[in-house]
């Protein structure tokens, strides 16, 4: 297998390349959610439609995000953070790794659903955002477990809740949003890392790729690699991955549209 990174334009270049490739099982897409979900709401002239030009083979893993605050914020629970936001307008600045990203959509949802006053501050990537979060330039975020976990141990940042339906493997002591009293659908979302093929790829090829992928993900070495990256192994079947995508997509599209952000 040859890995060819085709970055740029929010994943559009690489995703379009695979969508337009021959459906022979030799050109596949490994993608995070954005190019196949939120891009549909962010871009009016997307050159591909993932709903009709691509099909899932397997969700390799899922990445969690965590609501976290700078230690200077006097909140140890989600409820305390929302109370602080209401009582202290203008005090909370929520950093994200870009407009239209999951942190941005969740910030918008929290602000509207719970009347929480938080200023959204977008960055060009998660690294610069974490640097400013540690410095207090922004003081709250929804970020990746991978990027934030090390700073919880030092006490510089404080985790409040993780997204998803169960606790994150890397943060077993941090409750889910539902456990914290907020079972809203947007807080149940995680970030699947999905292997996809052109939509017209024959079913027998999809099934074989699905079996091989599941076998690889189940190996001890791959399980360890995925966990070390801060993600959680999945390796589901093509049918399961497709069902998950169909359930995930409308929730993400509504959340992204609610931000009012477009990028073209």
UniProtKB/TrEMBL annotation:
Pfam family of the protein (one): TctC
Keywords in alphabetical order: Receptor
CDD domains with a match to the protein in the record: PBP2_Bug_TTT (cd07012)
InterPro entries, A to Z: BUG, Bug_dom1
Protein family per UniProt: Belongs to the UPF0065 (bug) family.
Name of the protein this chain belongs to: Extra-cytoplasmic solute receptor
Organism encoding this protein: Cupriavidus necator (Alcaligenes eutrophus)
Taxonomic lineage from the root: Bacteria, Pseudomonadati, Pseudomonadota, Betaproteobacteria, Burkholderiales
């Amino acid at each position: 297998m040859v890995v060819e990174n085709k970055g740029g334009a929010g994943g559009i270049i690489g995703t379009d390349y695979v969508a337009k490739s021959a459906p022979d099982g030799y050109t596949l897409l490994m993608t995070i959610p954005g190019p196949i979900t939120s891009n549909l709401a962010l871009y009016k002239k997307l050159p591909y439609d993932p709903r009709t030009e691509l099909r899932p083979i397997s969700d390799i893993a899922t990445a969690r995000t965590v609501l976290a605050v700078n230690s200077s914020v006097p909140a140890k629970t989600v409820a305390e953070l929302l109370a602080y936001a209401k009582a202290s307008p203008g005090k909370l600045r929520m950093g994200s790794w870009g407009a239209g990203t999951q942190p941005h959509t969740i910030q918008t949802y929290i602000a509207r659903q719970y009347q929480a006053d938080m200023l959204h501050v977008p960055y060009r990537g998660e690294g610069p955002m974490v640097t400013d979060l540690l410095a207090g330039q922004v003081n709250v975020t929804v970020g990746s477990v991978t990027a934030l976990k090390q700073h919880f141990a030092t006490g510089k940042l404080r985790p409040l809740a993780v997204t998803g339906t169960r606790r994150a493997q890397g943060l077993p002591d941090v409750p889910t949003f539902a456990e914290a009293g907020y079972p809203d659908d947007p807080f149940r979302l995680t970030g699947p890392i999905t292997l996809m093929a052109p939509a017209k790829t024959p079913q027998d090829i999809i099934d074989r790729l699905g079996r091989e992928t599941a076998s690889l993900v189940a190996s001890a070495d791959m399980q360890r690699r995925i966990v070390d990256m801060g993600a959680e192994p999945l390796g589901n079947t093509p049918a399961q991955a497709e069902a998950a995508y169909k359930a995930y997509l409308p929730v993400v599209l509504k959340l992204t549209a609610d931000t009012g952000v477009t990028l073209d």
